[in-house]
Amino acid sequence: MKKREFTEEEKIAAIRQMEAGRPAAEVGRELGVSKHAVYAWKAKYRGMDANEARRLRQLEEENRRLKALVANLSLDKEVLKAVIEKNVWSAACLQASAAMAGGLRKCIRPLVGRVARATMSIRACLSS
Predict the structure, then answer these.
(1) Are 112 and 91 in contact (CB under 8 A)?
(2) Which of 39, 99, 106, 110 lies at 20 to 30 Å from 63 by C-alpha?
(3) Per-residue model confidence (pLDDT) at position 76
């Protein structure tokens, strides 16, 4: 059997009934939930009206979305750092081999450009 979702208005109405003097068990039985669920609603929505509860739900949803966005950007940042470190190490290896071969400038210049572009893109991601 599917669990029923109650709107904020219904939850606040149940809390108002409790504040008017009805026992939590009676209010819960009428709604088909336990008295503990009614007490949990009271802990969350005490003192709110329906508009404030709606705004709370919107803020919680926005907070969840922003946390996911930050997690994705942090992951992207770590991947880009790893790529840059890899390119720097490969550039150092190429520098040593190119120095021995005498063609240092030809081998290093393209790598320096790639590292600089990756660094700029990371800074752009971090600043926005």
Answers:
(1) yes
(2) 39
(3) 84
